[in-house]
Automatic annotation (TrEMBL), chain A:
The chain crosses the membrane at residues 12-30, 82-106, 112-131, 143-160. InterPro entries: DUF318. It comes from Neomoorella thermoacetica. It is found in: Cell membrane. The keyword Metal-binding does not apply. Belongs to the UPF0718 family. This is Putative permease.
From TrEMBL, chain B:
This is Putative permease. The chain crosses the membrane at residues 43-67, 74-93, 105-126, 138-158. Keywords: Membrane, Transmembrane, Transmembrane helix. It comes from Neomoorella thermoacetica.
Length: 180, 160
C-alpha cells in the first residue's frame, strides 16, 4: 500500500524514466547520455538543496514574522526593494533554489512585488555568476547586462504585481502557509 | 566554493540553534524536511526532463543552431535555445565566448545568455507549483521579451 502511494506520487518521474529506458533499448548511446545527464542533475541538486532547506527551516523557526514584515513587507518601501535585490544577487545556485526561499519569505509576510524582485534578481543578478560572466565575456558585456537588468526587474515586478490579481495573490500566500 | 559557504552557513546556524534551543532546532529540521519532501516529486520530474533536454540540445547543437546565423532569425533561434536549456553558468559563459570567437553576433549571444538565466521552460512546472500558473507565464514571457531589449542595448554598448 505504501509502495503504491510512492509510485503514485512519483508517477510522472517514473514515466520519464520509463521513456529513457525505451530510448536506451533502441538507441543505447543516446539513452546512456540521458541517464548520465540526469544523474548529474540529481548530484547537483543534492549538493545545493540540503543546506537551503536546512536554512529555511531555521529561518522559519527563529526569525519572527514581524521582523520580515518590517524589512520586506507592505510599507517597507525603497528599503524592502533594495533588500530584495541584494538578497537575490547574493544567492548561489540555479533558479529552482529560489522557489523554496521565496515561499518562506511569503509565509513570513514579504510583500508580493518584493518576492518577484527577489526571484528575478536571483535568476539574473547573481554576483558569483557575474564574476564568471565578466571573465568570459568582458566587463563591458557583463556590467551593461547587470545594470540594464535592475530597472527591467523593477518594471517586471510592477507589471506582474498589477496583473496577477488579488485572488491569485491570496492563493499564493495560502499555499505557502500550508506548505511549511 | 559558494556551495561550501552555504554548507558552512547552514551547519553553523544548526549548531547555534541547537545550543540555544533543542526543541526549536528539531522543529526547524522537521519543517525543512517536510518542505523538501513536499516538492521532491516535482523536482525529480524537472531534473529528469533536463537530462533529456541536455542530450538533444547539447552545446554542440546550439553552436550549429546559432553559430553561423545572424540578424533577427539568429536572435530568435538563440532566444529559444536559451529559454529551453538549463546550462550552469560555468558552461554557458565559455560556450558563449567560443561562439563569439567563431563569428556569432554579440546580440545573439546576449539574448542567449539573458534567456538562459531568466526564462525557464523546463523549470516552469516547479515554478508553477510554488507561484501558480499565471505568475509563471507572466514572469517567463516578460523575461523573454525583456531579454531582447537587454540584447539590443548590449549590442549598442559593446558592439559600438
Amino acid at each position: 500500500m505504501n509502495l503504491l502511494n510512492l509510485i503514485k506520487t512519483y508517477r510522472y518521474f517514473l514515466l520519464i524514466i520509463l521513456f529513457d529506458v525505451v530510448i536506451t533499448v533502441f538507441r543505447p548511446g543516446t539513452g546512456l547520455t540521458i541517464f548520465k545527464y540526469t544523474a548529474g542533475n540529481f548530484a547537483e541538486m543534492l549538493a545545493i538543496i540540503p543546506p537551503i532547506f536546512l536554512l529555511l527551516g531555521l529561518l522559519d523557526v527563529w526569525v519572527p514574522r514581524e521582523t520580515i514584515i518590517r524589512y520586506l513587507g507592505e510599507g517597507s518601501g525603497l528599503k524592502g526593494i533594495v533588500l530584495s535585490i541584494v538578497l537575490g544577487a547574493a544567492a548561489a545556485g540555479p533558479l529552482y533554489g529560489a522557489f523554496p526561499v521565496a515561499a518562506v519569505m511569503a509565509k513570513k509576510g514579504t510583500k508580493y512585488s518584493n518576492i518577484i524582485i527577489f526571484l528575478c534578481s536571483w535568476s539574473t543578478l547573481k554576483i558569483p555568476m557575474f564574476l564568471f560572466e565578466m571573465s568570459a565575456l568582458g566587463i563591458k558585456f557583463a556590467l551593461t547586462r547587470w545594470l540594464v537588468n535592475i530597472p527591467g526587474i523593477l518594471a517586471m515586478a510592477y507589471i506582474i504585481d498589477r496583473l496577477i490579481g488579488e485572488e491569485n495573490k491570496a492563493e499564493f500566500y495560502r499555499r505557502q502557509m500550508a506548505n511549511l | 566554493m559558494f556551495t561550501l559557504l552555504l554548507y558552512l552557513l547552514a551547519l553553523g546556524g544548526l549548531l547555534i540553534s541547537y545550543g540555544k534551543d533543542r526543541h526549536k532546532t528539531r522543529l526547524a529540521l522537521m519543517k525543512g524536511w517536510k518542505a523538501f519532501t513536499n516538492i521532491l516529486p516535482d523536482f525529480t520530474v524537472v531534473l529528469a526532463l533536463i537530462g533529456i533536454m541536455l542530450t538533444y540540445l547539447s552545446p554542440h547543437t546550439i553552436a550549429a543552431l546559432v553559430g553561423k546565423n545572424s540578424g533577427f532569425p539568429g536572435m530568435l533561434a538563440s532566444s529559444i535555445a536559451g529559454s529551453v536549456t538549463l546550462i550552469p553558468g560555468f558552461v554557458a559563459f565559455p560556450l558563449a565566448k567560443s561562439l563569439l570567437d567563431r563569428g556569432a553576433g554579440i546580440m545573439q549571444m546576449a539574448v542567449f545568455v539573458s534567456t538562459l538565466m531568466m526564462v525557464g521552460v523546463v523549470t516552469a512546472p516547479l515554478e508553477s507549483r510554488y507561484f501558480g500558473k499565471k505568475e509563471t507565464i507572466l514572469r517567463n514571457s516578460l523575461s523573454y521579451v525583456f531579454s531582447f531589449i537587454v540584447a539590443i542595448i548590449i549590442g549598442m554598448v559593446v558592439g559600438a
